[in-house]
Amino acid sequence: MTERLRIAVQKKGRLADDSFALLKKCGLRFAIRGGGLLTRVKNLPIDLLLVRDDDIPAFVSTGASDLGFVGENVLVEEQLTTEGGIDAQIDRRLGFSRCKLSLAAESGGDILSSTDLNGTKIATTYPGVLRKYLADNKIKATIVEMKGAVELAPSINIAQSICDLVSSGATLEANGLAAFETILQSEAVLIKSARTLSPVKQDIYDKLIRRIDGVTASSDSKYIMLNAPRAALEAISAILPGADAPTVMSLAGSDDMVAVQAVCTENVFWETLEQLKAEGARAILVLPIEKMMA
Ligand code: PRT
Ligand code: ZN
């Protein structure tokens, strides 16, 4: 039986859809059906282990899974709170599920900065990260550990402030709270243990990682095509964001205009197009890039 690389992915929740979408963009063909713990990828020797996000670092650390997709916040919390530590480190940053772990308190209340936390109670589901932050900053406060609904803690007098994940800020606002400090920036990450993979698994891993890198690199990249006055070529090349030497071709029937094409490795904003136009560029097209391999 051929060995299969195993990847732990959140079964359902905020990370699940983007994790599945990334794997699909990497060319993996699979179907997620209710119930099952393990899903076979049809066209590569890879199995997906569908679990709760909190269990993913431990699965990778113990070898139940070779890789895992998890929020950096969960990884750091598990690293700080698991006895004996865990053998799971960040292998790639994936750029989705971005959020912040922030300290927040009643808007317009007495707690306006972290120094005001001395002698108070802080509710959180991230006791490990919070404990480290308080120790690093020499703040003496009591941590009230909760399993969820942390944003309600101040209104029911369990704590004076909270330490919770924030994305749009709408939840804090709806509960009359305001964030005053970010203690961790988080995004989805691919995690791996330091163990050596078998040669077969290493090959599958290498192939997958090349594809993940290709998808991540192409997501911010754009292909740009435009016509430009030959005299403005230098100025126009300087504006193209993150582009190496552009391809320049002559235009049929025109001596002073040329066609320019380039891969921009950074996002192309409307402001960039306006600058290009101001330099004399015309017929500007910005196209998405689906895949890239160096
Ligand atoms: O069932 P399982 O244990 O697998 O999932 P879960 O309920 O523990 O996690 P889930 O699916 O809610 O979140 C998974 C991961 O998504 C988190 O660990 C983060 O890495 C990431 N993420 C990104 C978020 C948020 N954004 C987020 N906004 N996780 C939670 N929230 C919550 C936050 O706790 C707060 O209650 O959303 C609320 C705030 O959102 P805003 O937009 O109102 O600020
Ligand atoms: Zn969870």
Low-confidence stretches: none
H/E element string?
Answer: EHEEHEHEEEHEEHEEHEHEEHE
Shape: flat
CATH architecture descriptor name of the largest domain: 3-Layer(aba) Sandwich
Write out the distinct hetero groups bound to the structure. phosphoribosyl ATP, zinc ion
Task: Describe the SSE topology.
Blueprint: E1 5-10, H1 16-25, E2 38-40, E3 46-51, H2 56-62, E4 67-71, H3 72-81, E5 89-93, E6 99-106, E7 121-124, H4 127-136, E8 142-145, E9 161-166, H5 170-174, E10 177-186, E11 188-192, H6 199-219, E12 222-229, H7 233-239, E13 247-251, E14 254-264, H8 270-278, E15 282-288
Parallel strand pairs: 1-3, 1-4, 7-8, 7-9
Antiparallel strand pairs: 2-3, 4-11, 5-11, 6-9, 6-10, 12-14, 12-15, 13-14
Helix pairs in contact: 3-4
The structure holds phosphoribosyl ATP and zinc ion (ZN).
Short description:
The chain is built from eight helices and 15 strands. The chain has helices at residues 16-25, 56-62, 72-81, 127-136, 170-174, 199-219, 233-239, 270-278, and strands at 5-10, 38-40, 46-51, 67-71, 89-93, 99-106, 121-124, 142-145, 161-166, 177-186, 188-192, 222-229, 247-251, 254-264, 282-288. The model has no long low-confidence stretch (mean pLDDT 95).
